[in-house]
Amino acid sequence: MKHFYVVDHFIKFPQSEYGGVWNVIAENDDECFDLIVLDDNESYSEYYGNLRANVIKAQRFALVDNEESRIVERFLT
């Protein structure tokens, strides 16, 4: 079963003022993490140490339909 994740992730200035929020459809925490890292067009990799913990504690909602795994939307400051 896939879930809709709402992942809040802090990224320090100057890369970002506050960080961002990723809305992701994924099978599990590992897939969610991988989708966010692969989506990274910026250079936030030095902050990914906290990203896995943020994925694990993210709000998630079970999906009724079998949606494709993907990043639905992201908002980064």
Overall average residue pLDDT: 83
Beta strand count? 4
Order of strands across the biggest sheet? 3-1-2-4
For the largest beta-sheet, the strand count, sense and barrel status come to: 4 strands, antiparallel
> Which H/E pattern describes the elements?
EEHHEE
* Count of runs of 4 or more consecutive helical residues: 2
Ranges where pLDDT stays below 50 over 5 or more residues in a row are none
SS strand fraction: 35-45%
CA radius of gyration is 12 Å
Helical content, roughly?
Answer: 25-40%
CA-CA gap between termini? 31 Å
Task: Describe what you observe in this structure.
The structure is a single chain. The chain is of the alpha+beta class and 77 residues long. The protein has one domain (3-76). 26% of the residues lie in helices and 35% in strands. A four-stranded antiparallel beta sheet has the order 3-1-2-4.
